[in-house]
Amino acid sequence: xxxxxxxxxxxxxxxxxxxxxxxxxxxxxxxxxxxxxxxxxxxxxxxxxxxxxxxxxxxxxxxxxxxxxxxxxxxxxxxxxxxxxxxxxxxxxxxxxxxxxxxxxxxxxxxxxxxxxxxxxxxxxxxxxxxxxxxxxxxxxxxxxxxxxxxxxxxxxxxxxxxxxxxxxxxxxxxxxxxxxxxxxxxxxxxxxxxxxxxxxxxxxxx
Length: 207
Prior knowledge:
The protein is an alpha+beta fold. The protein has helices at about 1-20, 30-35, 105-110, 125-135, 170, 180-190, and strands spanning about 40, 45, 55-60, 65-70, 80, 85-90, 100, 120, 140-145, 145-150, 155, 180. It has six helices and twelve strands.
């Protein structure tokens, strides 16, 4: 698990550097914030023998990380939403990894990068794959090897001034200056996973 987790983390660092360069920033703009972060390797498994078509393995949500990275699952079921709200089934080619932006990435870019909404459900294709695996005496668990890459807790997050041409002053005000830990704890509190009250005062603006 350490070997696989380290490979996923290395891929995140590479993509973070690519994103920074692509946005015209110093290449370590994001990776310097990731160093020392509480990255979480969190593989999840679903027993397809106990879950039929329509079962929800992960409800509609976005991630509270900076970036989330997945290996390819044995079975389909991951759906993602594009910026135009179009829903698509994610198809990861063999030998490839899938990355999704989290809420911290959205915060740093003033909303230019959106935290990607997604869900995992049992579809007819999932059941089809399960039946085929079962008949061939193969593993019938759907396993997702996911790593959540997070900024170091004390990194101060706010829309990056050098990216001001990518967002408006109004949208930037939706993302006040906060530490990565404050963003994390506020998101956890919103889903009743912890008790936390931020001292950051928000005003509501339309993007």
